[in-house]
C-alpha cells in the first residue's frame, strides 16, 4: 500500500514537473516575444505555441526543441530566459541584424543544443565561457557579428563539433590550445572539419599543438588576422585538409618543407605574410587548383619548375615573390590554367607562351618585371599584361599588352527561362519565370573557389541549377532563383548575389518560407559543390517584414539599404550596363531621399557621427550624407593598412586602397596622427565633399573619426592621376582626343565647384596630380584639402594664407594673397599646357608657361610647337583644334585675374573645340579607341547630374 502511494506520488510529481516545464517553455517564449520587436505576427495569438501556431517554433512532447527565426528582422537582446529551454536542439537566429547586445551566458544551459547559428546578427561583447558546456553541439556559427575578446578555451570542450565558424568578428588574443592549466583547446576538436576563424584580430603564433594527425579538418581558414611566428610543421600532419588559408597575417620564417604532405589540398593561400626562405616546393600536391603565395619575402629564385607538374592548377598567384629568370613556356600548357599573376618580380628575358597554351587561359599578368621581348608578340590571343617591363618602355609602344586591361566587373546574371519579363510594381521584381515577386536576397561569399575566372558563366548556371534542385528536394516554396554580378572582393572571396523567388504565384514569401530558406543557407544544408567549396551566405532584410518599410511601398533598391547600393555600385563599374544602372541609381537616389523623409530612423547608417562620444567634438563636421566608419571597419577593408594597399601619399597622409564588404573599391586617406593643421583640413574636406556631387568630382563615401584617427573614404578611381598617365606610368596612351575630353571633364568639375556647389568652392590646388581618371578615363577633380568655401558675404575674394603647389600657383594670388576663382583658372591653364607637353610645370628651372610662349610662332602650323609637344599625343595632322587649345591655355595664365576666362567660359570653348574635332562633347567616355564602352556612352546623358545630387555617398558614377 505504502509502496503504491509513493509510486503514485512519484508519478504525480513527475507530471507536475513536466507540466511546469511545459509552462516554463511557454513563459520563456513569451519572454522572447517581449524582448524582441518584429516577431512574427502570429506570435500575438493566444494559442499554445507548441500547437504549431507560432512561426519558427517546433515542439516535441510539448517541449520546445527547435527555434528557427532566420531573416525575420528581429530587434532586441537575447534574454537569459533562453537558458530555460533545456530541450532545445536547434537555435537559428541568423541574419537578424537587429539582435544585439551580449550573448547571455545562460546559453550554456542548453545542454541538448546541437546547432547554434547566430551568423549575421549584431551581437557584441565576449563569447561566454559557458559555450563550452554545450556538449551536444555539432554546428556553431557565430560569424559576422561584433564579438570581442578572446576565443574561449572552453570551445575545445565541444568534442562533437563538426563546424566552427567565428570569422568576421573582432576577436583578439591567441588561438587557444590545451595545456597543463587549461586542459581544453581547439586541438581537442578532433571531429571538426571546419575551423573558420578568419577576419578577426587574432594574434600570437599558430600553436604547433593546434594540429595533430587524429584530426579530420578539411577547411582551415585563418586569413586576415594578426598571427605571427612561423607556420608550424605539425600542419603537415593534418592530411585531410583541402583548403588552407593563412593569408594576410604576419607570419614569418620558412614554410615547413612537409607542407607538400597535404596532398588533398585544392586551395592554398599563404599570400601577404612575411614568409622567407625558399619558395615552398609543392611537388606531389596533385589536386591543387589555386595557389597564392604573393607578397612574401622569399629568397630570389627562378619561377619554380614543379609548377608545371601540377596538372590541376587553375590559378597561380606569385606576385612580388622575388622570382627571376624566364617563365618556362611549359607553365602555360597546364591544361586548366586560367590565371597567372607573376607581376612585380624580376622575371627577365623573353616571354614565350607555349605554342599550345591552356584553352582556359584568361589573364597572364607580368606587370613590372624585366621582360625585354615576347615571342608571340604579334600573334597571341590571350590577355597578357607587360606594362612596366622594358618591352613596353620603348618609346611609342602601343601594343595592347602594354596597356593595363580595363577590369570590368561582370554584370552577368543567370538567364531567365523562356518568357517575357514583366515590368513589375516598384517593390517587385520579375522572376526568371517572369512572375512579379519580392525575392529573398543576399550574398554568397565563396572563400576558396577552385577557379579564378569570373567570366565562366556556365559555372554559375550549374550553381543555380543545384540550388534550385536543392530547394525542390527539400520542399521549400521556391519558384526560381537567380544569381548575378559575380566578383572578387579584397579578401579574394568570390561574391555572388542571390535572388530567391516564391512559388505558387505568390508575390512574396511568408515567414515560414523565409526562415526555412534562411536556415538552409545558414546551416550549410545546401552544398554548392566542389568548385565552390565553402561559403558564407549573408541575407539582406526582407522588406515585407518591416511594417514601416513595406507600408510606404518602397523599391527593391531602398530595401537593400547601403549594402545593396554598393552592389549596384560594384556592378556598375565600367561595362555595358551603365545606362541601366544610372537609371537604377537615379531611382535609388530618389527613393533614398523619399525614405529619408518618411522613415528617418532607417537612414541611420548614413547619418554622420554627430553625437558620437568617441569623436572629437571640435572637428565633428556638419555633414549632408557621408557615412561614418569605425577604425576597425577601415582596418578590415584595407587589409590592416598594409603596405600592399598603400597607393600613395596625399596632402596630409597616406592613401590606401580597400574594398567595402559589398565589393565597392575605396581609397582611404589616413591623416598622420597629431597633425593639427591636418585636423582643420580634414574638417574642411569632409564638409565640402559631402556637399559636392558631380561626375567630374571625386565622390566622398564617408569618413572615420574614431580612436584618434582621421580618415576620408573616397570612391576608388582605378586609373590613378592624370600626371601618372602623362608620364607614361599607367600604361594608358593618351591621344589628343582623350586629352581634350579629360580637359573638358576637369573643367566641368571646377566649373561645378565654382558655380554650383553650395557653398561655392575654390579648389586652390589644381594640378595634374589632383585630376584622377576612372576606368572610362573620365576626369575627376580630387583633393579638397586646401579648398576654401566662398562665404556669401564675400564671394569675390578671400584673404588667406597662401597655399598651393609651385608651378601651378597664380602669381597674383601669391603676391596679394587675394584668392579668387581666377586662381583656379590660372592653375588650370598650366594643366592645359602640361596636357599637350607632358612636361612638369617647372623642369630644370624652366617654367612651362614661358617655354610655350617662347617656342610659339602663330604663323606656323601648330604654332610651331612640334618640338615641345608630347610625342605620344599623335601625329601633327591629327591635332585639329590644338591652336585654339593653346590660345585658351595662354588666356588662363594671363597675369591678372580679370583678363582670365571663368571656368564656364573655358568649358564653352573646350566644347566648341571638341565639336571642331568632330567629337560630341556630351559623350562621356574619354576613350576614342576602346570600342567596348563607346556604345554605352552615347546614350549616357551627361547633363543630368542633378538627378543624383545628394544621394548618400554611394553613387554608381561610373
Ligand atoms: C567542459 O564540459 C564539462 C561538461 O559540460 C564541464 O563540466 C566543464 O566545466 C567544461 N570545461 C570547460 C573548461 O568549460
Ligand atoms: C584524400 O582524398 C582521397 C580522395 O578523395 C580520399 O580517398 C583520401 O582518404 C583523402 N586523404 C586523407 C588523408 O583524407
Ligand atoms: C635573367 O636573370 C638571371 C638571374 O638574375 C640572370 O642570370 C640572367 O643572365 C638574366 N638573363 C637576361 C637575358 O638578362
Ligand atoms: C581578356 O580579358 C577581358 C577582360 O577581363 C575578358 O573579357 C576577355 O574574355 C579576355 N580574353 C580572353 C581571350 O580570355
UniProtKB/TrEMBL annotation:
Q: Where is this region: Disordered?
A: 923-958
Give coiled-coil spans as residue ranges. none
Annotated Gene Ontology cellular components are: membrane
Return the InterPro entries for the record.
Kinase-like_dom_sf, Leu-rich_rpt, LRR_dom_sf, LRR_N_plant-typ, Prot_kinase_dom, Protein_kinase_ATP_BS, Ser-Thr/Tyr_kinase_cat_dom, Ser/Thr_kinase_AS
EC number(s) of the enzyme?
A: 2.7.11.1
Give TM segment ranges: 565-590
Q: Where is the signal peptide?
A: 1-21
- Which domain of life, per UniProt? Eukaryota
User: What does the UniProt keyword field contain?
Assistant: ATP-binding, Glycoprotein, Kinase, Leucine-rich repeat, Membrane, Nucleotide-binding, Receptor, Repeat, Serine/threonine-protein kinase, Signal, Transferase, Transmembrane, Transmembrane helix
Question: Mostly located where?
Answer: membrane
Which cellular compartments is it found in?
Membrane
Record protein name field: non-specific serine/threonine protein kinase
What organism is recorded for this protein?
Answer: Tagetes erecta
What broad taxonomic lineage does this protein's source fall under? Answer: Eukaryota, Viridiplantae, Streptophyta, Embryophyta, Tracheophyta
